[in-house]
Amino acid sequence: MSAPPRIPFPVVDEVSRHCVQEREPETVHIEVHLPGDLDPGRIRTAFTEALRRHPRILVREARGAWYRRRYEWEVTDGPDVEVVSFPAPGRDALRDARTRALTQAPPLTASPPVRLEVVEVGGRADAATRQGTRTVLLLTVNHTALDGPACLRVLATAAELYGGRDNAPAAPPVRPPGTPEGPPDTPSPWAPPARVAPGTPEPAPGNGLLVTELALPHRPKGSPYTVNDQLMVATALTVVHWNREHGAARRPLRITMPVDDRPRDTTMPIGNGTRLVDVPFAPEELDPGAMPELLRRTARRTRALKSLPRPQLGHGAALLTAPWAPVACRAALTRGLRRAAAPWTSTTLLSNIGRIPYPLDFGEEAGRAHAVWFSAPARMPRGLTVTTASTAGRLHLALRWSRTLLGPEDGSRLRELFAHYLHTTEAT
User: Fold this and answer.
1) CA pair distance 109, 26, nearest whole angstrom
2) Span 204-223, pLDDT tens digits
3) CA angle 313-316-322, nearest 5°?
4) For residue 265, which of 153, 345, 158, 185 has the smallest C-alpha distance?
5) In whole angstroms, what is the distance from residue 336 CA to residue 271 CA?
6) Contact 134/151 with Cβ under 8 angstroms?
7) Which of 124, 262, 367, 378 is in the most buried spot, having the most CB atoms within 10 Å?
8) Which homologous superfamily is 6-163 in?
9) Cβ(193)–Cβ(344) below 8 Å
10) Separation of alpha carbons 236 and 42, rounded Å
11) What's the distance, CA 35 to chain centroid?
């Protein structure tokens, strides 16, 4: 019997593997709300077949000696474990599934590093769920191996296999034409950015989560900025307001923004495929009273940053993951450098998935997804991430925070601030 094929860890995977913490697992949470019911046997079969059609998701970490120069993925023929589970229905079934997604990462030692829970909610809606939801598909992804868009691609394949309907991606939206000018007066990247001020933390490990549904912000036709720019401005103003309420000194902000250039069809590379760019803001720029200029400046800045060729985590990460020393030595060095660089880590992360490109149509009985939420890890020193996606003309917002920094009431206040400032970006 031949050994499974092996793939060296890419840069993002290796850096994440070096910095694994049990207290705050690096998980991505995805939940898809459907109006109907799913047949357990059919959805298990469809999802398992979808994994086989995207074999790069069927990986586990290969064993190796401490002195090995690289971590490697083993590609398996099928799942090592049962991936799909069906928690007992109940009043708190969805809440408990969300908690598991934030505190229990699928192990890297079993293929695939993803878990799918099919949660029956029986038409009952929580504060963020539309009436009519009967089933929630909740995926938990180990972010060391995969990201949210890649797993959504696999789920779209499962939807097509289950429902027999076309789930091909829609054409991506066209960004408005740009102006010839570059980013205006970009603040220095060397100044330590503001941190999110502490609120009322919880004495518990892991992350907290709040999901909510908002109206998509209005944007005049032909505007030089996008909804992503509006979300960026709303995030920045939310943090500034929060910090002012908590007595923090004014400092520059830096918001990390994932950029994903992969195709969304069946040729989409599966894994961690986004690159990270940091969008800087000087304190004097963040004036809600000068919103039109702030939006235009942000649009020019994000456009310029997206167009720059850059490794996924920067040139330093590429050097750290070169096989010049055993992985155990490079892991210790990476963790030390991460602690030393904490004051320069960005203030927060805004991950805008954008319009969900797939119908996620599971057929006549289960129906089409009417809400999709993602959330990204929120480990310190950032301690807060903002993730957005739009489905059926609505914006689905997830705020996720480190429990060592914030608590549930803090999340509710941040949601209020975000909704307020997102509204202020709309032209009347």
Assistant:
1) 15
2) 888 999 999 999 999 888 88
3) 95
4) 153
5) 26
6) no
7) 378
8) Chloramphenicol acetyltransferase-like domain (3.30.559.10)
9) yes
10) 44
11) 24
Q: Which two tokens stand for residue 381?
A: 């020193």
Starting at the edge strand found earlier in the chain, the sheet holding 27-34 runs 84-85, 114-120, 135-142, 27-34, 371-375
pLDDT digits (tens, 9 = 90+) for 307-357: 887 767 766 677 777 788 898 888 898 899 889 989 999 999 999 999 999
Distance CA 402, CA 418 (A): 18
The pLDDT assigned to 221 comes to 84
Closest CA to 134 of 365, 398, 390: 365
Contact criterion met (CB below 8 Å) for 265 and 169: yes
List residues bridging with 215 in a β-sheet.
394
The 10s digit of each residue's pLDDT in 20-65 is: 988 889 999 999 999 999 999 999 999 999 999 999 999 999 998 8
H or E element at residue 8: strand 6-8
Q: 112: cis peptide before it, omega within 30°?
A: yes
Q: How far is CA 287 from the centre of its chain?
A: 28
Considering the chain, tell me which residue range(s) the CATH 3.30.559.30 domain(s) occupy.
Answer: 207-355+378-424
The H-or-E segment that residue 245 falls in is: helix 227-245
The residue behind tokens 């914030």 is 406
* Tokens of residue 73, six digits: 């993925």
The full length of the chain comes to: 428
Which residues of the chain form CATH 3.30.559.10?
A: 6-163
Residue 32, SS3 per DSSP: strand
Domain over 207-355+378-424 is classified CATH 2.160.10.10? no
Structure tokens that stand for 284 in this block: 């004097």
pTM of the model: 0.93
If DSSP codes are grouped into helix, strand and coil, which group holds residue 114? strand
CA 243, CA 240: separation in Å to the nearest integer?
A: 5
* Mean pLDDT for back-to-back runs of 10 residues, the chain (428 residues): 85 92 92 97 98 97 91 96 95 95 96 98 55 88 97 98 92 62 63 95 91 94 92 98 97 96 94 93 94 95 87 70 85 90 94 96 95 96 97 96 97 98 86
**Res 177: pLDDT:** 59
Which two structure tokens, joined as six digits, stand for 300?
A: 């020019």
